[in-house]
Amino acid sequence: MKSVEKNIEKESRLIWNFFMSMIYLALVSVILAFGYVALGDDIQALLNQKTITAEDIRNYKPQSNEGGEEVDYNKVVDGIHVYTGLKADPNLQVIIGSCTSCHSAKLITQNKATRAGWKSMILWMQATQGLQDLGNREPIILDYLAKYYAPENMGRRKNIDIAAIEWFILDQKEENK
Ligand code: HEC
Description:
Largest sheet: 2 strands, antiparallel
Helix content: 40-55%
Bound molecules: heme C
CATH class of the domain at 76-148: Mainly Alpha
Distance between the termini: 141 Å
Strand order of the largest sheet: 1-2
């Protein structure tokens, strides 16, 4: 009788153990499944990660703009550098490198000033907008700006020849008063 009881006890413990193992297995599966749902994409990304080499950077070309056509970074049409809208010049890259990192080149093309005016805009940006000292690039930049973005009427219009002007004499009659 004793041994029968023992056997039953043993069997029920085995069944219980088996049952518990199944529950553990199910729990672990659920946790893994949740984990995969939550992190699967990140794990995939980690596995597929491609390291960018210096070669990739050297071969990098801006692919295309919204119109889908190739962007030719160096294209110049009618003396205008198409990509930035700035006037083409042998020193253009200096201007692009120094002046287009914080704002678009439009701020330059929309402005006109004398060399002194440009200098004061640069000083203003240096004092208030975090523009770095431009070092030996400053005279190159100022030459460029003063050459292409000078006030419109500077040195273009001929001086008025006062003697050649026929002046209207306004006769002020009573009725005009
Ligand atoms: C460190 C960032 C930075 C750099 C680099 C920089 N700027 Fe600016 N610039 C600014 C900020 C900020 C403004 C103000 C923008 C605004 O008002 O929306 C500004 C404004 C301007 C304006 C408009 C000024 C006005 O009175 O309306 C011009 C022109 C300009 N920048 C030209 C240049 C030129 C030329 C260079 C290269 C020498 C240059 N910027 C480089 C930050 C910078």
